[in-house]
Fold these 4 entries.
Entry 1:
Amino acid sequence: MRAGWSLVRHEVRLLASLALWVARRTHGTGRGVAFGYARGQGAMMAGFAFVCVVETVALSVLLRDWPTLHAVFLFLDVYTIVFVVGLHASSVVRPHVLDTEGGSLRIRRTVHVDLLVPLERVGAVRRELRMTHERADGELDVEVGSQTSVTLELTEPVRHVGFFGRSREVRVVRFHADDPDGLVRALGRARV
C-alpha cells in the first residue's frame, strides 16, 4: 500500500514539474542560490522522447485494425512520452539549492532524491568527476548521466529517505552539477 502511494506522489510531482517548466518557475529555490544539473542529460532525454514518439506512430499503424487495442496502446504511449518529458522537466525545475541564510545545501535529482545537508556538517567538499559508482554503506551517489562531479564528506551523517520510504544514514554524498567549480567555491564561502 505504501509503495502505491509513493508511485502516486511521484506521478503528481512529475505533472507539477511539467507545469512549473511551462511557467518557467523553479521549485524550492526561495532565497537560496540554484545550481542546475539537467544539462548533462538533456540530449539523452530528448533522444529517448523521440524514440517514444516513433514507437507511438509505429504502433498506431500496426494496430489500426484493432480499435480497442489501438486505444489502449495509444494511451500508454502518450503517457510514456509525458513521463519522459516530465522527468526532464523535474530535473530543470528542481535544482540543487545552496541556502546560506538557512545554513543548508539541498541536493536533488528529479523528484527521486531530495536531501537536505546542514552546512555545519560539511567536513570537506571537492570537485571530483566520477563515471563509475559502487554501492557502499554510508555513501549516496546522486548520478546524472552516470556521472557525479562534486563530493561532500560529512562530519556527522544525515538521513536519506529513498523513493519507497526506506531511510539510511549517509556520510559521503556524491552528486552532479552543471557548474561544479562554482558550486564548490560557493559552498566553501558559505562554510567560512
Note: The helical segments are 2-22, 42-62, 67-93, 180-191.
Entry 2:
Amino acid sequence: MLIDAALQLAAEGAEVSVREAARRAAVSPGAPFRHFPNRDALMAAVAGEAQRRFRAEIEVALDQAPATDPLGRFRAFGLAYLRWAMRNPAHFEIISTGRYFAHGSSAELTRDNAELIALTERMLADAAEQGLLRSADPKRIQIAGRALVYGFARMNLDGHFPRWGVEEGETERMAEGVIDLFIAGIAKP
C-alpha cells in the first residue's frame, strides 16, 4: 500500500516522502517509519518491487523462448525489457536512474542486476560457442544491446517518438523492429 503510494508519487513527478506516501496510503503519518526509517529505505523497497516485476516479465519471456536458441533468448530478453519499460514508465525511471535513491545501497538490487548481466553474458557466450555471432567480442555486443534497449526505453519515457514520426500505438512494433535489426546485425548470415 505504502509502496504503491510512493510509486504513484514518482509517476506524477512529485517529490516522494515517507509522510506524503503515508497520507496517500491513508495511514497515520508515523506508522510507516516503523518499516521505512527514511525516504531512501522507502524508495529502496519501491525499487525492489519494481525489480521483482521486471524480473518476472523477463522470466516469462525467456520461458517462451527455445532454450537451444541463444539469440532468440537474447531477443526475447530485449523485447521483455522494452515492453516492461514502456508499460511501467515510473518503475523504469526508479530502477534505471539515480534520481530517487542510490542504487548501490541496495544489496538486493545489486545482486539481481548482476544476475541479469550474467544471464545475458551466458546467452551471448552460448551464441558464440554455436558460431552464431559476427563478432568475437560478446562483451561489446552485450553493452551495445543494453545501450539500445535503455536508449529506446528512455526515448519513450522522455516523449521523443512523436518527433521521429512514431505514433503512440506504433511504439511497441517499432521496438520489435529495432531489436530485430540489432539481432540481424550481430548474427552471422
Note: Helices lie at 2-11, 18-24, 39-64, 70-87, 89-96, 107-129, 138-157, 171-186.
Entry 3:
Amino acid sequence: MIISIVTAVHPGALPYLGTAYASLDGQALPDGWTWEWCLQEDGSDVGAREALPEPDDPRVRIGSSRKGGPAVARTMAFARSEGELVKVLDADDELTAGALARDIGALEAHPQIGWTTSRVLDLMPDGSLLGFEGDPPPGLIDRGTVLTHWRQHHRAQVHPATLCIRRDLVTLLGGWMALPASEDTGLLTALSVLSEGFFTSEPGLRYRKHPAQSTAHPDHAQGAEWAARMSIIEARADALSALTNRS
C-alpha cells in the first residue's frame, strides 16, 4: 500500500527541500506500506531535482506545470500520485519522526474517518520551536466541527499543512481550491463537512517560518483578496453542508 506525499515547489523553497526530503526519508512505516513523493514544480526551470540530496531516489517523482500557485501545483501532483492515502508536505517544512505511521494508524483504526491532522510546531529562523494554544483534544473530530470553529474565528481549528486524506475524498473535492492562498484551509473545511476527522496531539510537522513563504505576503490576512478568499471558502462549505443534509 502507498501513501502519496504531494508537494508544490517554488524557487523560494529550494533551500529547504533537502531537509524536507530527509524528514521523509527517515519515516518508519507500518508493514506493507511505502511512500512516494510527488513533487510538482510551479513553473518551468524551478530546479527541484538539483536541490535534492538523493535526486535518483525512485520513490521521488518530479513533474512541472505552468505557474499557477500552490493549489494548482498540489492538484497536479495529486493527479500523478498512486497512493490510497494522500499526505500534504510543503517544500519548506519537515515531518517529525513517526508522523506518517501515526496518520496511517489513525485511518486504519477508524475506518469511518476521512482525514487526519496533528499538532504543529513553528520552526523559527533561529532554529527554535514554538507551539501555540488552542488545539482540540486528541482523537476523533466530529463532522462540521472544524467549519464551525473557522466560521467563528476565520482560523482553522487544526493545521491544514498536516492533512492526510483518503484518496476518494481528494478526488471528490477536485483537489485544492483555486485560490492564491488559503487553498488548504478551503480543502480542510470542505473535508470537515463531508467526514469525521482525527487529531493527533503529538507534533507531526515543523512549520518553517521564513520571509519567502506565501503566508508572509501582505495580502494574506487582510484586504479585498483575503475577504474574497474567506467568502468563497465559507460558501463552498455551506453548499456542501446543505447538500449532505438533504441526502
Note: The helical segments are 14-25, 48-51, 70-80, 99-109, 145-153, 167-172, 183-194, 223-246.
Entry 4:
Amino acid sequence: MSEAASSRRIVLLRHAKADWPAVPDHERPLAERGRKDAPAAGRRLADLGIPFDLALCSSSARTRETWKLAVHELSHRPKTVYEERLYDATLGDLLALLAETPDDINDLLVIGHNPAMRALADALAGQADGDTLTRLSRGGFPTAAVAVLTFSGSWKSVEHGVARLTDFWAPHE
C-alpha cells in the first residue's frame, strides 16, 4: 500500500443539543436548538468535502436524530451503521471500534457522545494545525461540534498521538 493510499481521516461529530424529558437517557430526543444545530453541522461536513466511506452512529435517539438532520446536507450519503457500543463508550471502546474498521475504509465519520468524543480527539491528536487544539482544549467538545483527524497506516495501528487534528468546528464558537 502506498503512503497516499494509506492516508485516512476520522471525523468526530458529537450529537446536537438534547432535551431532558422524563424518558430513559438512551431515548432522549434533540432539543429545539439541537434540531437547528444538526443541519449546521451537516453543512460543515459538506463544506469539508470528505467523501465518507462509512458513518458509525450511536444507537441513541439523539445521535440518530442528529445524523438524520445532518446527512441531508451531504451530496453523498455514506453507508451508516448504528453501533450500540458507541452509546456510553469509553476511550478504550472507541479505540477498539476504530481497530475493527476495514482497511478499505479511508474516511470514517463517528457520531457519538461526550466525554468519549473529547477523549478520543485528545488522545489521537499528537499534532494539530493552527489553533485547532487550543480551540478544542478551551471549548471542550460542545454539542454538534466536528473534529477532523488524519493519520497514515491501517486502522489497527490507531493509537495515542498517531493523528493530526486538522479542523475543529462548533456551531456556537
Note: DSSP finds five helices and seven strands in the chain.
